[in-house]
Amino acid sequence: MKAVCWHDKHDVRVETVPDPTILNPRDAIIKITSTAICGSDLHLYEGNIPTMESGDILGHEFMGEVVEVGREVKNLKKGDRVVVPFTIACGGCFFCKKDLWSLCDNSNPNTWMAEKFYGHSPSAIYGYSHLLGGYAGGQAQYARVPYADVGPIKIPDGLEDDKVLFLTDIFPTGYMAAENADIEPGDTVAVWGCGPVGQFAIKSAYMLGAERVIAIDRFPERLLMAQEQGNAEVINYEEIDPGEALKEMTGGRGPDRCIDAVGLEAHGTDAMAVYDEIKQGVKLETGRPTALRQAIVACRKGGTVSIPGVYGGFADKIPLGAIVNKALTLRSGQTHVQKYLQPLLERIQQEEIDPSFVISHRLNIEDAPKGYEIFRNKKDNCTKVVLKP
Description:
Radius of gyration: 20 Å
Largest sheet: 7 strands, mixed
Structural class: alpha/beta
Strand content: 15-25%
């Protein structure tokens, strides 16, 4: 089969690799009909996530048709159309039973690696380093899906791929980010980053009762999308200091809830942003937390900062004094996708949202290297690339 394989920084290739096979009675094999490049895949593309190996198959946003199931998979059958959550979870451990699916104790065979970094291992993720399991990803024609008896959700007839594909990751991630922000009716929510997760965080904030959403980015096409699709007020941080702008827009109090949907590759215009670029460049810091610093400082006293943006290791100069003295609450985590699949599918079916609004490019899988390049460099107004295997 054809698959998108990682080889090195800025080096992904479409190659012919062996088809996946059933390895465990709880596995299923999926013939992929749609897959996407996630913003977090760009962290792999930039070489910022450790333990990748040459030839690893990328991709954690995918859906398709069941073509084979293991003998213990009773909920799926050949021909079913399914969406696959990016977090791999067993469904039976302490954490899965508490709906904390991204913290599954059993899905990461390389737990020992993660424990060295984090103390404990989170769940495995498709195509996202050997630190997180070393599973083959879904930017391919077929994928093996472990724990298929508890992970994938069946998609009813009549819903096209583009409307449901993002249940795999970015829609639940944006929604959980808003939920983690503890939004109350009437709140003002500030969202750093108008990429796909930021766009879904904006829409989800309104779903959860926000009165105003203010979006911060530097790309005009993304800010325009936030305005037109998300009904957000916008700040271009290259034109105006976001901290000062947010103070003015909230009467000096600051946003009630702040969401960092940028993560470890944030850009900025101040001296700290330059500091981060240098330290990350010489491997003395693994992330550039410009957006997170701004969110912590801008947030009103007693507010909440939610962090869906990906951070893989260590970041400097986090303003802990502001967190303590303003009594802020910080919440984060990889998304517990399985928890959100059914309720968010119902919102799509009820036409509360059509997630396909974020798609800017549809490419054949052979064009994946081009997709990575234009997504990384924000060329051609690229906001989201969907690949057709």
